């Protein structure tokens, strides 16, 4: 159930992250591969990889001209436990002002949150690899093979100064490309449509992702307050020597149970909706990257055409110009052809994933609502037996 | 006379009734008695969790079911020696069904307190005579169209012989001199009123004036007097200067609902319902003279009044009588309860604000999903996204409704009890004041007697003797009266507390029940919404 978007190509290359270790600042993923492909030395093996190595791999794909016409699967986001750690810290700071019961519950909550985030980052790294494995062209990449089977560390240390600057320039070029993309005259109707679509889609889905995140956060906050309410009613119950005490205990119990259920509601919204939106935000950006690359190639193509015309006019270095133009033309046509497939595939993948996750989301929410109803009925029944 | 010493050490004992109080005597260990919680400090905006005027115009008046809970078995009139209730309440109200319940509840309730004998006879009298002595829990119908389908069990409904509704808040005048008036509609079968149904208009300061008068009259008698909602000069200034459309309706409607609960609590109190000022308040159609002393018992005032109680309580507790022990334990319980309720109230306020934020987030999400849907090229997916946006909208609405109801059912009730507990503490303090008076009177008497003895020993002093003897008589009288006052207030407080406790139990039980049912409703609606969405999601086809 972890390979949401990926069509595993039968059994000839299966990848999963079988284990992950969280160590202070870094996470060590155990990448487990099972393969029948001859290119690999063994048929089943494990390596330990860190996040930076995944990024390295992604960069290798991105920079490879061979893959210019393909959508490169988006890199997984960096594991970020800072906010979780900060919350845990805040909790231990306020340990003295909370009752033991409250403190324990909140700690439990935070630990569960941490665990959930951990699972998520594992999943995202896994999906990245699985998409690569499923892609007919990308799976054969040499760097990919090295990533999967090379036992040692890939020595992908943090970018040094020079690399950082070159990275900076790359971003600049990218931004210039974006302008290029926006302004470029596009004769091909398909690509023009795709361009417009992707530009807007990316923006809108970014908004939706943020909206979903905000909503789940707010929901979580409410669920956490239930801890205080449960505790408050418990306190009232213990100091009340009348009949009312048992009612108050029921209410305290209700808030505790409700909290758990509300947490699940929120968590499933997060997993099924927010994460889907987030993934396609990134994937649509990867598609836009493809469009940029094509744009650049098109611009190069147009330049080559102009050069050829000029050369012919002057009758100087015509052969050179012809060759250059031919090359660019070839490149452009290849990219365009592949891109068409990739973009259609993108649509199919997207629709499939949304469908799957929306259905799962709904089924889960139905389940939770039913559970809540059962629970409340149970409490109501208990109040009736009391009176 | 010879009992001076005894009196100083312990107020007279009320022997046997204490056994019935077992349930209510407990050792509250948690907080020291002196723990006065500043009423203003902690509260995050406790008067104004609603903030600015929102779209919500009316707040459903679920409160009525709660404050007007008619399952109060122990609403037997505590009989104080002088007050004779029966003659006034002559109307035989339909008593059939409740009587059985009333009867059984009478026996089970803690009708402790002093006058066990008279209470028993009254109890039997109760079961025969009209139930009008029980100024029961009216269900005042609110002004909104909320179906009060949460009516308490049918048995009790006939018991209502007075119901008060507060409606139609109207702004009179303009600018800073303007004020709000409310329509007070009473439906009653009590004979002391001229008609069965009548309406008057009152302004907020009239309520405060009424409270002031009631306190002055009844507090020394140890009555626990419900208090009206507080003055809120800041928000009211906004109301006064705002134009018609911009009046913060949330605040006004909340105030209206609180005033309604207040009046019904008064009407429920069998001593206070007969108070002429109260009756005039709800009955007299003409405008009341403007109250000047509307300081009344603002929370700050109550707090100030209460700060001394701790030291005085310790004075009393050096004695070992059972009576004092009872009062001491009760007092500790009251203070603890007060603190705990305040904490809980604050948490509910926090929750309210968080729910509001959560609702806003849902709304944003819904909007962004709609936008995404418009760009999504796959038509079926696009429709599914639009439907999902609708789901979020509907859930947002349900959550807002729930949040408001939660506030009305639980938060407002807790708040009411917080101020009621203030009034309880005030009553306790009155008792201590009176005890002090008594002690002082005895002191003075003793001194006078010493003076007399001295004078008797000197030849010259003989002519001053008559004077001193007259004073001695005077002070003997005072001592007796003070002693009686003290006894009376002690009895009264015990009775009042019993009623209070029973009411508290009933109010909260009822509120919990209604709240749970409301929660159930909410979840059922949510379930329905998601179930309706499932086919939509399934429609997505490649």
Automatic annotation (TrEMBL), chain A:
Residues 301-331 form a coiled coil. Residues 7-154 form the PX domain. PROSITE patterns: PX. GO terms for biological process: protein transport. GO terms for molecular function: phosphatidylinositol binding. It comes from the Eukaryota. PANTHER family: SORTING NEXIN 6, ISOFORM B (PTHR45850:SF1), SORTING NEXIN FAMILY MEMBER (PTHR45850). Belongs to the sorting nexin family. This is PX domain-containing protein. It comes from Rotaria sordida.
From TrEMBL, chain B:
GO terms for molecular function: phosphatidylinositol binding. The keyword Transmembrane does not apply. One of its GO terms (biological process) is early endosome to Golgi transport. It is a peripheral membrane protein. Residues 1-159 are annotated as: Disordered. Residues 100-136 have a biased composition (Low complexity). Residues 160-289 form the PX domain. It holds the Pfam family Vps5. Residues 64-73, 141-152 have a biased composition (Polar residues). The keyword Phosphoprotein applies. Its main location: cytoplasm. Residues 1-10 have a biased composition (Basic and acidic residues). Keywords: Cytoplasm, Golgi apparatus, Membrane, Phosphoprotein, Protein transport, Transport. One of its GO terms (cellular component) is cytosol. It is found in: Cytoplasm; Golgi apparatus; Membrane. Belongs to the sorting nexin family. This is PX domain-containing protein. It comes from Rotaria sordida.
């Amino acid at each position: 159930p972890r390979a949401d978007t990926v069509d595993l190509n039968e059994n000839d290359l299966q990848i999963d992250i079988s284990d992950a270790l969280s160590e202070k600042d870094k996470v060590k993923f155990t990448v487990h591969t099972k393969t029948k492909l001859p290119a690999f030395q063994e048929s089943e093996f494990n390596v330990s990889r860190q996040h930076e190595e995944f990024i390295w791999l992604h960069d290798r794909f991105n920079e490879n001209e061979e893959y210019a016409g393909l959508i490169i699967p988006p890199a997984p986001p960096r594991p970020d436990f800072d906010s979780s750690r900060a919350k845990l810290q805040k909790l231990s700071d306020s340990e003295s002002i909370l009752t033991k019961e409250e403190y324990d519950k909140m700690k439990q909550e935070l630990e569960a949150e941490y665990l959930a985030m951990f699972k998520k980052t594992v999943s995202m790294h896994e999906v990245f690899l699985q998409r690569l494995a499923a892609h007919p062209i990308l799976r054969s990449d040499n760097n990919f093979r090295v990533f999967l089977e090379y036992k040692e560390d890939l020595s992908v240390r943090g970018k040094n100064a020079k690399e950082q600057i070159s990275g900076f320039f790359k971003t600049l070029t990218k931004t210039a490309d974006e302008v290029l993309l926006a302004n470029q005259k596009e004769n091909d109707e398909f690509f023009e449509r795709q361009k417009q679509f992707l530009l807007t889609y990316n923006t809108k889905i970014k908004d939706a992702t943020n909206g979903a995140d905000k909503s789940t956060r707010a929901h979580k906050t409410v669920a956490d307050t239930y801890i205080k309410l449960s505790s408050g009613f418990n306190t009232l119950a213990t100091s009340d020597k009348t009949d009312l005490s048992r009612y108050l205990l029921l209410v305290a119990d209700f808030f505790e149970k409700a909290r758990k259920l509300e947490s699940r509601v929120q968590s499933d919204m997060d997993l099924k909706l927010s994460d889907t939106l987030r993934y396609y935000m990134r994937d649509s950006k990867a598609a836009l990257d493809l469009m940029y690359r094509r744009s650049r190639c098109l611009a190069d193509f147009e330049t080559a055409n102009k050069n050829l015309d000029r050369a012919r006019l002057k009758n100087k270095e015509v052969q050179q110009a012809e060759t250059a133009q031919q090359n660019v033309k070839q490149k452009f046509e290849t990219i365009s052809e592949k891109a068409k497939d990739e973009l259609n595939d993108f649509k199919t993948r997207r629709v499939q994933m949304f469908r799957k996750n929306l259905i799962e989301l709904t089924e889960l929410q139905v389940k939770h609502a039913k559970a809540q109803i059962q629970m409340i009925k149970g409490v109501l029944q208990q109040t009736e037996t009391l009176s | 006379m010879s009992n001076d010493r005894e009196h100083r050490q312990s107020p007279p004992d009320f022997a046997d009734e204490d056994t019935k109080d077992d349930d209510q005597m407990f050792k509250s260990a948690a907080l020291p008695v002196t723990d006065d919680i500043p009423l203003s400090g902690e509260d995050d905006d406790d008067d104004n969790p609603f903030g600015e005027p929102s779209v919500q115009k009316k707040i459903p008046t679920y409160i009525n079911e709660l404050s007007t809970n008619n399952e109060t078995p122990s609403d037997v009139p505590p009989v104080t020696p002088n007050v004779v209730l029966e003659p006034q309440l002559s109307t035989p109200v339909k008593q059939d069904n409740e009587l059985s319940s009333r009867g059984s509840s009478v026996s089970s309730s803690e009708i402790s307190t002093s006058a066990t004998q008279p209470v028993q006879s009254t109890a039997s009298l109760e079961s025969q005579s009209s139930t009008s002595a029980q100024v029961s829990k009216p269900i005042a119908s609110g002004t909104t169209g909320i179906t009060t389908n949460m009516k308490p069990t049918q048995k009790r409904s006939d018991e209502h012989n007075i119901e008060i509704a507060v409606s139609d808040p109207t702004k009179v005048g303009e600018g800073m001199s303007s004020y709000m008036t409310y329509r007070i509609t009473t439906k009653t079968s009590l004979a002391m009123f001229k008609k069965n149904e009548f309406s008057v208009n009152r302004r907020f300061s009239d309520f405060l004036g009424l409270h002031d008068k009631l306190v002055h009259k009844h507090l020394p008698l140890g009555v626990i007097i419900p208090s009206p909602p507080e003055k809120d000069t800041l928000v009211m200034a906004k109301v006064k200067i705002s134009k018609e459309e911009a009046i913060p309706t949330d605040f006004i409607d909340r105030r209206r609902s609180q005033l309604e609960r207040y009046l019904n609590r008064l009407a429920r109190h069998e001593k206070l319902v007969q108070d002429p000022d109260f009756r005039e308040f709800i009955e007299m159609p003409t405008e009341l003279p403007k109250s000047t002393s509307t300081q009344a018992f603002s929370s700050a005032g109550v707090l100030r009044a209460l700060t001394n109680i701790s030291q005085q309580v310790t004075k009393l507790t050096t004695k070992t009588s059972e009576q004092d022990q009872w009062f001491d334990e009760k007092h500790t319980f009251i203070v603890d309860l007060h603190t705990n309720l305040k904490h809980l109230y604050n948490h509910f306020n926090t929750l309210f604000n968080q729910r509001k934020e959560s609702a806003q987030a849902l709304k944003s999400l819904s909007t962004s999903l709609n936008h995404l849907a418009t760009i999504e090229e796959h038509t079926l997916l696009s429709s599914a996204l639009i439907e999902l946006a609708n789901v979020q909208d509907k859930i947002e609405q349900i959550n807002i409704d729930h949040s408001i109801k939660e506030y009305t059912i639980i938060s407002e009730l807790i708040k009411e009890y917080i101020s009621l507990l203030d009034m309880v503490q005030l009553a306790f303090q009155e008792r201590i004041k009176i005890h002090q008076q008594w002690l002082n009177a005895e002191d003075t008497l003793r001194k006078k007697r010493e003076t007399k003895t001295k004078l008797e020993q000197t030849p010259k002093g003989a002519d001053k003797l008559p004077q001193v003897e007259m004073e001695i008589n005077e002070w003997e009288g005072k001592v007796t009266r003070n002693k009686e006052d003290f006894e009376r207030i002690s009895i009264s407080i015990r009775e009042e507390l019993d009623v209070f406790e029973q009411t508290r139990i009933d109010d909260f039980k009822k509120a919990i029940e209604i709240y749970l049912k409301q929660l159930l409703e909410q979840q059922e609606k949510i379930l329905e919404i998601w179930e309706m969405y499932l086919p939509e999601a399934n429609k997505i086809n490649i």
